[in-house]
Amino acid sequence: MTIQVCRMKYSDEQVIADIGEVYANDEAKENGERPICMSFKNPYSLHIVNESEQGYNITFKKWNPYSDDGQYHVGFDLIGLISNCKPAVVEAYEQKVTVDTTPVEETDEEITTTE
After folding, report:
1. Strand pairing partners for 23?
2. Tens digits of per-residue pLDDT, 55-88?
3. Which residues contact 112 (CB under 8 A, 6 or more apart)?
4. Would you identify the CATH topology of the domain 2-101?
5. Model confidence at 105, in pLDDT bands (50, 70, 90)?
6. How far is residue 69's CA from residue 65's CA, in Å, rounded to a whole number?
């Protein structure tokens, strides 16, 4: 799997994720058969906050905030374009995933989320 940006076909949403192919089974993959769909691991929608001649600032929003799932199978009919990311975007994404997937130690204090 590789960290890439996917432009969703119908919504034009930019999704960054660890993207890979899903096969019916190991034998299908070994025989060179076509994958059945794509896999998005730790997907976030990617947004440019502001842009200038010097560059741009980006923000990540959980792709499906209504689920705690970390991996989704996405049909080819929903995908418009998949491309590689700039190294700085990959680095920012990896930092976001690390922060979001690191377990919070249990305490007696009440924890409030804003998601």
Report:
1. none
2. 889 999 999 999 999 999 999 999 999 999 999 9
3. none
4. SH3 type barrels. (2.30.30)
5. low
6. 9
- Ordered by start, the domain boundaries in the chain are 2-101
d(CA 21, CA 104): 31
Spatial separation of the C-alpha atoms in residues 85 and 55, rounded to whole Å:
15
pTM across the whole model: 0.83
Give me 45's structure tokens.
């929608």
Start-to-end CA distance of the chain, whole Å, equals 27
Q: Specify which residues 82 forms β-bridges with.
A: 6
Region for 101 from its dihedrals, namely left if φ exceeds 0, alpha if ψ lies in -120 to 50, beta otherwise: alpha
3-state secondary structure the chain: CEEEEEEECCCCCEEEEEEEEECCCHHHHHCCCCCCEEEEEEEEEEEEEEEECCEEEEEEEECCCCCCCCEEEECHHHEEEEEECCHHHHHHHHHHHHHHHCCCCCCCCCCCCCC
